[in-house]
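Entry:
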Amino acid sequence: MKPNELRRQLRGVLAFAITPFKDDFELDVKGLEKNIGAMCQSGVHMIVCAGGVAEFYSLNLEEYRQVIRTAVRVAEGRVPVLAGIGHSTRIACELARFAESEGASGLMINPFYFVEPDLEGLYKHYEALAEASSLGQIIFSTGHFAYTPELVERLAQIENVIGLKDEVGDLKTFVATVERVRDRLAWINGMAEPLITAYFACGATSFTTGIANFAPDIPLSVYRAAETGDYATVRKLVTSKVSAIARLRAKRKGYATAVLKEAMNLLGLPAGPCRLPLTPLLPEDRQALTTILRDLELLK
């Protein structure tokens, strides 16, 4: 998919797929096949593999390739698949070339960790990725590594850079960035369902979600309401179906992923454990999640 085509299609629900592991922490390829197949049938608009909730940082390079290859193969073009691309520039370029060779539709550029390159280093990172692959790139701005409006404006000069996922939650900065760059980029609400009203009012056309791993009807119903401007229904849906899960995911460090995987385990879906350094839910939090899933009528 050409970058501008991907930019035009960045609307709706972007489902961030977890990476399932077996009880011995080995990659569960068959489980991943099942999960991606179910997502494709659910109605979500795009799927992101090898992202943050997919524990990309815990995958060796061969596993990384397996995740990308499997997701693209199972999707079969039914739903665009974006490959999360992280690590150093050299490794990121290698993975970007691989993702394109396998038929991925675009690249979600995962945040840096440990290192904090200067502005010139950041620009050269994206420039190198554009030389390695012709796929469209999405900037991933988060609290651990937030992008300034000035830097986003400069990165937008690279033809392959076509979108920004904002997971910072600073709407003042988000608006300033949108005003600088305008429709050169597609704007993605990376704060999920709870802030969809605010982000859509500021120019976002899509949002990311982890809930789609086990309850895709929830984000899809939220998007349908937001798309038509029915924000009263959005608030009702978020309050009744999202807020409890969101609070639990924010309760402890590492729970953003662990809660999703444990919900899937409780529902009999392929997920398995998180890899260290992430740890399982505490017993009381697992019980709280069980109650939430029952309240949502997902678990009997």
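Residues 12 and 290 are 29 Å apart (CA to CA).
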